[in-house]
Design a protein that fits this description.
The chain has 11 helices and 8 strands. The longest helix is centred in the middle third of the chain and has 36 residues. The radius of gyration is 22 Å and the shape is flat. With 300 residues, it is of the alpha/beta class. A hairpin with a 6-residue loop joins strand 5 and strand 6.
Length: 300
């Protein structure tokens, strides 16, 4: 994700927080709720894609079992939505095409899961116009397809993994296009409809819609890890973001820099053999470095 996209995502998250703050007001306009939920889904898909992109760029070897579980769950959700539409429209052929349970998908062979997921993807693609009302959009399908490519790349050969990286980049581009469309053509208009009776809401909405230029400063956490009690620095400490794919190790002087491209609240975990694992809460802001120094206690 480039700097411009980082800035745009930061703005999108600010808009969501603002709308959630005024959710009682927004509930008076049902169309706004529908659009807000669609926007949240796109932002969530962008965050997931960014995490997978970071994993590819850093060369992390993904645990195939973990990725397999995630893909099976995503495929199951997509299949269930298509099945619901097929049932409502009386399309028994389509129902049969996507009749996959989570356990069925999870138990498929490595060389079967990818093609099966693409069958589900194709069924969604063919019926996309009708599935829009079910919050299935082109960017959502692109994100799912990128995940399939990532998995098949890991299962097959490193060469095939290149297709996964290209798919992720393409997916991210399409997701941001959907991001722009929802904001510019739908949310901005609905927010304007609330302006006359709720000027405070609208002024705050406009302020949150401003994209902050991150400049040349990285969006990251940084600090130094020392031994508690003597202030000696520790090298080789694993610093990772809890529940995310971002990680690094401290240098010989105990320092670290960890780029976290998506602004938000995170927990950093500090781990090293012979020392007690510790954690620190950090607030990551666009274009800024959050300081996270840590002292580790030796295991007694």
């Amino acid at each position: 994700m480039n700097k411009k996209q980082e800035a745009k995502l930061g703005m999108g998250q600010a808009v969501i927080l603002h709308c959630d703050k005024y959710i009682a007001l927004i509930n008076t306009l049902p169309a706004f709720i529908i659009v807000l939920n669609a926007f949240k889904m796109v932002v969530s898909s962008i965050r997931n894609t960014v995490q997978r992109e970071a994993r590819n760029i850093s060369g992390i070897t993904v645990d195939k079992k973990e990725l397999r579980e995630t893909l099976a769950k995503q495929a199951n959700v997509l299949a269930a939505v298509i099945y619901s539409y097929a049932s409502a429209s009386g399309n028994n052929t389509l129902k049969a095409e996507v009749d996959y349970t989570y356990s069925h998908l999870r138990n498929l062979r490595d060389d079967e899961l990818g093609p099966t997921c693409m069958i589900i993807h194709k069924a969604a693609e063919v019926n996309l116009v009708s599935l829009i009302d079910y919050n299935i959009t082109p960017p959502v399908l692109d994100s799912f397809k990128a995940m399939v490519y990532e998995y098949t790349g890991i299962v097959a050969t490193p060469r095939n993994a290149t297709a996964g990286r290209k798919a992720l980049n393409s997916s991210l581009k399409n997701l941001f296009q959907e991001f722009d469309t929802i904001l510019n053509e739908r949310m901005d208009t609905l927010a304007l409809a609330l302006q006359q009776d709720n000027p405070e809401f609208y002024e705050e909405y406009k302020n949150n819609r401003i994209i902050v230029d991150p400049g040349t400063s990285p969006t990251q956490a940084a600090g130094t890890v020392t031994i508690k009690g003597n202030d000696n620095t520790l090298k080789g400490v694993l610093v990772n973001v809890e529940g995310q794919e971002y990680f690094t190790n401290t240098k010989p002087d105990g320092s670290f820099k960890l780029k976290i491209p998506v602004p938000g609240s995170y927990t950093l975990l500090f781990t090293k053999d012979g020392y007690q694992t510790s954690s620190a809460a950090v607030e990551i802001k666009l274009g800024q470095t959050a300081t996270a120094d840590m002292e580790l206690s030796p295991v007694l």
